[in-house]
Structure formats: C-alpha cells, structure tokens
Amino acid sequence: MLEAHLSPSYVAKLRAQLSSQKENNEASLRNIWLLSPSVHKAFREGHVSVRLASQPFGDSESKCEVDDEIQNAWYTLETIFPDEISGLLLGDGTALESMARFKFSTPNPKTLPTPAFFLFEIHRRFASALHLFYIDDKVARGWPQPPRDWLAFNIPTLRQTFYQLWLCLPLNMRLQCYLILKEIGKWLYGTTLALCVHRLPFGLMLKEFVRSQQNESNSLRLVERYTSIPAPRVVDVGEYGGTTYLVMTRLRGQMLDEVLHLMSYAERDLLADDLGSYAMQLRKIPNDTEFLFCNSLGGPVVDHRIPDGSGGPFNSESDFNSYLTSHLGCLPAEVVGEENLRQDHHSYFTHSDFHCTNLLVDCGRLSGIIDWECAGHMSEYWDFTKAMYSARRDPILESIFRRAFRHRYEPELNVERKLWFYPLFGV
C-alpha cells in the first residue's frame, strides 16, 4: 500500500534512510529542520508543504535522484488549497501569505547537513491526504453559526428610523463621520480584499469610487425596487475631498470561493438554482435609457472584460461587438467568423460580474450578491459568459453557472472563448 501511494523507488530510498539512522546515531541529525511553532504545527498536520521553487505547482514527480545538485536551490513553502491555513508566522516573525521562497542554511554542513529533499516530496504526498481529512472533518461538523456582530443594528425598524434621522444631518458632517468609522472599522475588523471597500461598525460597508461613481448606487436602488435579490441597500452616497463614497448595508455570508469545497452536491445545485432565479429577476428591471447597451444611467459600460475597461454606450449589438475587438484593429467576424456572430440578442439588466468573490454563502445557501459597479443593460448572454470567464475552467464553478443559466448560450460562450485567446481585454 505504501508503494502504491509513494512508488517503489520512494519506499526503497526511505528504507535506506531509516536503516542508516539505526546504524549511526549521527545520521539522525542529518534531517533536522527548525521551524517556528505555528509553521511546525501546520507542517505536521499537512497544511503546508515544501517544493523546489523551479518545480511547477502541483507537480509531484520525484526529484530525489538529484539531491546532491539542489542543496543550494531555492525552495517554496506553501499552504495547501483549498481552505488554506492562516495565522502562520515564519521564523523572522513575518506572516506566511500562501507561499514563501527560502534557502536552507546550516551552521555546519558536515555534521548538520540540510535535509534530503526526497523527504519533502514524501511529505507532500501525505500532506495532501491529511489536509483533505481536515476538510472532511469540517464538512462533517456542519455549517458553524456566524459570529454575532454586537455593533450591528439587528432590529429593522430601529435601523430604518435611525437612518432617516441620520440623513437629516449635513452631508459633509456625515461623510466625515464615515471616515472616522472607517478607521475604527480597520481596527475592529481589519482590511478587506478590495482596497476601496471598508467594513464599518453598525452593519455598514463603505466603498470609495474613482470611476463609475453613481452607477453602483443607482443599480442597487433599481435592484431594491424591482427584485427580491439579496443585495446591499444604499444608506448614503456623496463626494468628499474629490472621492465619491457609497455607504451601504453589509450582507451576511462568506465569499463562495472560501466555502465552495465545503458545500454538498445538493447545496451547489440549490445555489445554482437561486442564482439563476436572481438572474431572471434582473431582467424585469426596465431600460429607461436611450441606449441598448449601457450602464444603469445610460452612460458608458464599465467592465474589465472590454478594452480599456470602459466603452460605449452602444445602440446596436453590432457596435458592441466591434468594440470588443477594437484594440486588435480588426472586425469581430475576422476573429470568430461571420457565421458565429449574432446581432439579435435581447438587452437585459445584468450584474455583469458573478465572480465567486461577489457571491456570498451563509450556511450553505446563497445569501447575497455584492459589487454592482459593472451592472447595466447588456446582451442577454453577458452574465453567463462573464461568469464563465471568471471561473477560469474550474469544473465545479462552470457546472454551477451552466445550471444557473439552464445550459443556454453555449454558442456565445464558444465565441467568447475564441476572443479570450487574444491579448487580455481591459485592465
């Protein structure tokens, strides 16, 4: 069984190593490696592993036959995905953020040589299994109750009354208070993934804008008016010091990419069905602008998928398609073929960024959709192909998005994928 897991050559080398340690006490010191307490615990439990820095990620092929040639090589210490362990400190006190490059050092190469690399290769194979057992235990325990935010307004009527009274104060005074709360939030909650987004006390979020200042707040108001989609509710918006600030309610849940591996097949199917239902609700939002493809206010489309990250507005699908390849200096038909281009898609309101970091999950259910900066009136296939674009060939995410959109728009996805092989769009 051990040979099946490691290979016969690995087992033979391991036996030779253990035999030499029995015959010579000094040999037992040859593979000592000093680690900080937190990294040592994670290493023993299979949450981190070591590989050659030149070794491709995920490559488990043996390098033991060249041990003597790699003693001065660079190595990579990395946390194992998914459910990567956090809070690990290296020997110098710096935090281990996913991975760190290093070289082995020893005060006496003769009596204390650096560890044999093949042992790390063996450890990597066991670490993967140990980490999966850790995840399996988490799944078996079920979804934990989210920590309670004692500073949040959990009584809707009280919260609504306070917000109405709060908005009676001058705008500049309110915005200065938000900036103070921003600093308090950093101290209480830390930073978020996006530098422009900050968690505030009282169940609020603050977002700073440089471009598309009014589109997200207007989109959120449209979503609140016409749908039952769990999206942030706009509390306040204004400009101060040359920056536009949007204050909105905070939604419960974790980002999908943080919990996808913990979800059962039934929960993934339910998430896909909920997402599909919400995507259909978005189509009920009317287009009161004079353009076919535009943001919620009738202005330019803001989307990292298109050239320069912004373009339009457009009054025909032909104009929009031409813009998608404008940076290539050619027409879309030259890239994907005239027979593959449709010009008769409906225009619907779309979120335009169903990235897994914008989908929140609470206790296995889709609990919120955030980041509506790119929302607007787009072609009917856009939400699906943009979601597949962000999935980056992840089979689980792709199956969720295909189920959500009922396996439609595959021809449009094939056209989009031809474009993805060309230089990256936007920023």
TrEMBL record:
Domain Aminoglycoside phosphotransferase, chain residue ranges per copy: 216-409
Superkingdom of origin: Eukaryota
Pfam family name, one: APH
* PANTHER family referenced in this protein's UniProt entry, alphabetically: AMINOGLYCOSIDE PHOSPHOTRANSFERASE DOMAIN-CONTAINING PROTEIN, AMINOGLYCOSIDE PHOSPHOTRANSFERASE-RELATED-RELATED
What protein name does the entry list?
A: Aminoglycoside phosphotransferase domain-containing protein
